[in-house]
Specification:
This protein has helices at 6-14, 18-24, 32-41, 67-73, 108-120, 138-144, 158-164, 201-204, 224-236; strands at 2-3, 26-30, 46-51, 62-64, 82-87, 98-103, 125-129, 153-156, 169-178, 188-193, 209-212. By secondary structure, it is α/β, with parallel strands linked by helices.
């Protein structure tokens, strides 16, 4: 096992920036659980592995790092003992019928939680507007808990995509029928909007069925990741 060099440290650290991830088509995954999932199910995506444990062996290029070096390349407050550099390979879903569309989601924690929730409820594909946070952002990767490897996630011109869709387009808005009384089925495109501004005006024009989550308390707003979970749960009941 080769010792992690200063040049490798600099290279891995550079992948924290989106422009470098895009140019290299690589991103970072941290944590034993997610790295092991990659090894078991997506080994072809692994560029290299970094470990602080010299007894760990993989059939991939593996570098040994001390605790200090791992701290330099990790984005976590408490670095894990395993880190992998992974290839970016977007995948398409064939005949997707249950689609989640994200319009301008900005918070990495929300994004990761949304992906994890979509995975739980069996969403066929996640479509993101181009101004939605990068799914390969380290905070998104951590919050997704590996779900970004299991669901097709793609970025596009959302307005153009929805304009061409043959599926019913649902929009989570402050107006519309209650999600608890509206008859819905696990088919269609569900649009969730930005944390502060909701669904953009140009996308609202394409929404065919407006749905909302009724408020029973005093809170002024509902976290978008929580709202997504409630909406997907109701669609999955049918």
């Amino acid at each position: 096992m080769e010792t992690l060099s200063k040049n490798k440290i600099k290279w891995i650290r550079s992948l924290r920036m989106k422009k470098n991830r895009d140019s290299e088509q690589l991103f970072i995954v941290e944590g034993e659980k997610m790295v092991q999932e990659l090894v078991n199910n997506h080994s072809d995506l692994i560029e290299c592995v970094v470990s602080t444990d010299k007894t760990i062996s993989f059939n991939h290029s593996t570098f040994l790092a001390d605790v200090q070096s791992m701290g330099q390349i990790s984005s976590l407050k408490t670095p894990n003992r395993l880190l992998a550099v992974v290839k970016i390979r977007p995948k398409k879903s064939k005949n997707a019928k249950f689609i989640l569309a994200l319009d301008g989601i900005q918070d990495p924690g929300n994004m990761g939680t949304i992906l994890r929730t979509a995975d739980w409820f069996g969403v066929d594909e996640v479509i993101c507007s181009k101004n939605t946070v990068d799914i390969h952002n380290p905070k998104v990767v951590q919050a997704s808990m590996g779900s970004l490897f299991r669901i097709p996630i793609n970025y596009c011109n959302l307005h153009e995509y929805l304009s061409k869709s043959d599926l019913t387009i649902y929009g989570a808005l402050l107006t519309g029928e209650s999600i608890y009384t509206k008859t819905v089925q696990k088919e269609g495109v569900i649009v969730m909007g930005n944390e502060g501004n909701g669904i953009s005006e140009e996308i609202k024009e394409l929404v065919q069925t407006s749905i909302h989550i009724p408020r029973f308390g005093e809170s002024e707003s509902l976290n978008v990741a929580v709202a997504t979970g409630i909406v997907l749960s109701e669609f999955s009941r049918g």
